[in-house]
Amino acid sequence: xxxxxxxxxxxxxxxxxxxxxxxxxxxxxxxxxxxxxxxxxxxxxxxxxxxxxxxxxxxxxxxxxxxxxxxxxxxxxxxxxxxxxxxxxxxxxxxxxxxxxxxxxxxxxxxxxxxxxxxxxxxxxxxxxxxxxxxxxxxxx
Length: 141
Prior knowledge:
Elements: E1 5-9, E2 19-25, E3 31-39, E4 42-47, E5 65-67, E6 70-72, E7 79-81, E8 87-89, E9 99-100, E10 102-105, E11 108-111, E12 116-121
Antiparallel strand pairs: 1-11, 2-3, 2-12, 3-4, 4-9, 5-6, 6-7, 7-8, 10-11
Keywords: 2Fe-2S, Iron, Iron-sulfur, Metal-binding
Protein name: Rieske (2Fe-2S) protein
Pfam families: Rieske
């Protein structure tokens, strides 16, 4: 494990929503969007895409839709448990969101993940092109 990189303070993670941030793959340097969500146990981190269709972001920049401890995919209606990432309903039922190792220390949320490094708060710098794995389009143009 790494020593942990500060993402934000825990109070910045909204109740009933998410905080969007960007990480970089330690091997290839590719940017990936991620989200932080509140749970009964603290804060969890997930890569920001639906397991059914990786081109669909759960948080499109205005916070993920969270209801009763479940993250809702606005595209397909799939629901994911905030604390485990497990899909409880929808086309990817039984799958789970890709987790990021995060922890809270002295009020700060730290990224403590061997595969990713913190880049910045907010969405990635990509322009949504066809080569982009977070594009909302399933088609190459």
